[in-house]
């Protein structure tokens, strides 16, 4: 079971958990608290909003800067965000999928090689695809201090991201990396915004037998009457308010915005 909470209620719940007599462990890679149970039950997890830093139990007064990077075969959407606001974004598309088989060129190379002209064209576009991604990332990291990097990318494509001729401005072990725990549809601008909305919500993950503990924690935090920000329900006033903060047009220079 899971329950989603906006940032302010998540902050209240975090304060309540830290004050309670509950042993916790923080996983920085998942930006998640594990609430440990002495009775041997399955642990309860609380994934924090990306814009809510830990161990601080209140909303941060400083701005949280982060990059969201979504990559699938032939499609990429990435953007630079400050405190939940998208200041710049870019969508890349590339001819990487073999039309008849519906298989990416990278997977095809593992079995058939790259002798045919079409294969060489797709391979060339694959290399350029990742170079373009890293060029945009380099621009973001050069212009701004980046606190977190939220990424969704298959294991098949990860080596190509890091071995590109244009270097990635972070390595695989960078402590700022955060793998987005959510299925991502084909990366486009709207999907990028949807991923950002997801990352700005806290998420309680628990088993049915832990419902009583969850209800007690929410009550102690004064959140009993707060509606569940369900992942499927994007048409909420909260989500609408966030959408109003986005720029519809992309800025040309990733380092110069108002």
UniProtKB/TrEMBL annotation:
Coiled coil: none
Keyword Hydrolase: yes
VLRF1 domain boundaries: 62-202
GO cellular component: cytoplasm
GO molecular function: endonuclease activity; hydrolase activity
Any one of the GO BP annotations: ERAD pathway
Locations listed in the record: Cytoplasm
Keyword line: ANK repeat, Coiled coil, Cytoplasm, Endonuclease, Hydrolase, Nuclease, Repeat
Family annotation (InterPro entries): ANKZ1/VMS1, VLRF1/Vms1
Family: Belongs to the ANKZF1/VMS1 family.
Listed name of the protein: VLRF1 domain-containing protein
Species of provenance: Pontibacter flavimaris
């Amino acid at each position: 079971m899971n329950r989603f909470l906006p940032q302010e209620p998540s902050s209240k719940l975090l304060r309540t958990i830290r004050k309670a007599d509950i042993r916790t462990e923080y996983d920085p890679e998942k930006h998640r608290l594990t609430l440990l149970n002495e009775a041997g039950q399955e642990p309860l997890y609380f994934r924090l909003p990306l814009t809510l830093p830990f161990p601080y139990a209140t909303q941060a007064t400083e701005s949280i800067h982060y990059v969201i990077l979504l990559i699938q075969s032939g499609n990429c959407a990435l953007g630079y965000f400050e405190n939940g606001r998208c200041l710049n974004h870019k969508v890349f598309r590339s001819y990487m999928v073999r039309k008849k088989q519906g298989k990416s060129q990278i997977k095809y190379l593992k079995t058939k090689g790259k002798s045919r002209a079409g294969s060489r064209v797709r391979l060339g576009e694959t290399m350029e695809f990742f170079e373009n991604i890293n060029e945009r990332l380099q621009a973001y990291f050069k212009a701004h201090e980046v606190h977190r990097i939220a990424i969704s990318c298959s294991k098949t494509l990860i080596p190509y991201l890091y071995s590109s001729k244009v270097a990635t401005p972070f390595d695989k072990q960078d402590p700022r990396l955060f793998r987005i725990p959510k299925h991502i549809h084909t990366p486009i601008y709207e999907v990028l915004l949807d991923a950002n909305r997801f990352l700005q919500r806290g998420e309680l993950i628990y088993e049915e037998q832990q419902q009583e503990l969850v209800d007690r924690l929410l009550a102690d935090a004064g959140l009993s009457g707060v509606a569940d920000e369900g992942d499927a329900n994007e048409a909420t006033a909260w989500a609408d308010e966030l959408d109003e903060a986005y720029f519809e047009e992309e800025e040309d220079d990733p380092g110069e915005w108002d």
